[in-house]
């Protein structure tokens, strides 16, 4: 049977803290707070003294250098309340877009002939570049199925201006 | 309706046709949510490209600033992040 992975803070408790924690619900009301404080203070003391110990870190699974903003955000998103999770999701999408844009920039630098063959209009048309990104993060399930058409009145006036 | 965007120095020498289109965009789209104005913005960009017209970064920034007034704080934040990325 697979053992459930322990949370890292369990490694900073001793037997007496564990026993006291299990006993906590059954203590007299006046002692519960004191016992809870004792448990946590003991934990804090152990963390302060033993966290930097390599063996302890290894036992906790914290000895690896897994620093990654992407993994960090994913882990936080799982625990976050709905609104915060949505904000984290937005941030991740932005990071993804930045990566794509950087890839695009690198590609254009590496292929100067391709860059110069692009028309001046398409180079400067930031509105066209912005729109797909704005739309990609803004699609509700309904709008994904049926993209909204531009306003007829707007199109009519636009055509009048352009045809002058 | 906020008309202060017209005083931007970046519009001093703008093509009159482009200025008229900017005015139309702001008039039609100001105060509306991002979802409602995106189809109009896409259509304007597409039609202008057909005629060899396009907005510069500065002009796009002016349009975005004018339209941001009507957006929710979340939409404003998203537009700002994307603008910083592109420009």
Describe this protein's structure:
The complex is a heterodimer of chains A (164) and B (87). Chain A is mostly helical. Chain A folds into two domains: 8-60, no CATH class; 69-136, no CATH class. Chain A has ten helices and no strands. By secondary structure, chain B is mainly α. Chain B has one domain (15-86). The longest helix of chain B has 17 residues, at 34-50. Chain B is globular, with a radius of gyration of 12 Å. Chain A binds chain B through residues 90, 94, 97-98, 101, 121-122, 124-131, 133-135, 137-138, 140, 143, 147-151, 153-155, 157-159, 161-162, 164, and chain B through 17, 20-21, 24, 28, 34-36, 38-49, 51-57, 60, 63, 78-79, 81-83, 85-87.
Can you lay out the helices and strands and say which pair or pack?
The complex is a heterodimer of chains A (164) and B (87).
Chain A: H1 15-23, H2 29-50, H3 54-60, H4 69-79, H5 82-110, H6 112-117, H7 120-124, H8 126-136, H9 141-145, H10 152-162
Helix pairs in contact in A: 1-2, 4-5
Chain B: H1 16-29, H2 34-50, H3 57-68, H4 73-86
Helix pairs in contact in B: 1-2
Overview in brief:
The complex is a heterodimer of chains A (164) and B (87). Chain A is an all-alpha fold and 164 residues long.
Query: What is the count of helical runs of chain A?
Result: 10
Fraction of helical residues of chain A: over 70%
Radius of gyration of chain B: 12 Å
Order of helices and strands of chain B: HHHH
Oligomer: heterodimer
Structural class of chain A: mainly alpha
Mean pLDDT of chain B: 79
Overall geometry of chain B = globular
The CA-CA distance between the termini of chain A, in Å, is 78 Å
By DSSP, the count of extended strands of chain B is: 0
What share of the residues of chain B does DSSP label as strand, in percent?
A: under 5%
Catalogue the unreliable spans of chain B: none
**Count of structural domains of chain A:** 2
Largest sheet of chain B: none
Tally the helices of chain B: what do you get? 4
């Amino acid at each position: 049977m697979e053992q459930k992975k322990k949370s890292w803070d369990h490694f900073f408790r001793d037997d007496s803290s564990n026993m006291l924690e299990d006993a906590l619900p059954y203590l007299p009301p006046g002692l519960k707070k004191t016992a809870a404080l004792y448990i946590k203070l003991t934990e804090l003391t152990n963390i302060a003294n033993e966290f930097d110990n390599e063996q302890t870190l290894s036992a906790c699974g914290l000895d690896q250098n897994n620093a990654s903003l992407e993994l960090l955000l994913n882990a936080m998103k799982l625990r976050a309340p709905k609104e915060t999770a949505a904000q984290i999701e937005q941030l991740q999408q932005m990071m993804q877009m930045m990566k794509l844009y950087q890839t695009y920039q690198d590609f254009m630098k590496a292929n100067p002939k391709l860059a110069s063959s692009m028309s001046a209009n398409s180079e400067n048309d930031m509105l066209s570049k912005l729109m797909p990104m704005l739309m990609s993060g803004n699609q509700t399930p309904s709008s994904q199925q049926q993209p909204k058409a531009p306003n007829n009145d707007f199109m009519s006036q636009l055509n009048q201006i352009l045809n002058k | 309706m906020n008309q202060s965007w017209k005083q931007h120095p970046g519009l001093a020498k703008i093509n009159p046709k482009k200025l008229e289109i900017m005015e139309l965009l702001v008039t039609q789209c100001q105060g509306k949510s991002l979802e409602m104005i995106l189809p109009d913005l896409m259509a304007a960009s597409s039609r202008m490209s057909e005629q060899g017209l396009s907005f510069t970064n500065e002009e796009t920034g002016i349009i975005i600033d004018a339209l941001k007034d009507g957006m929710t704080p979340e939409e404003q934040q998203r537009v700002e992040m994307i603008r910083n990325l592109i420009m």
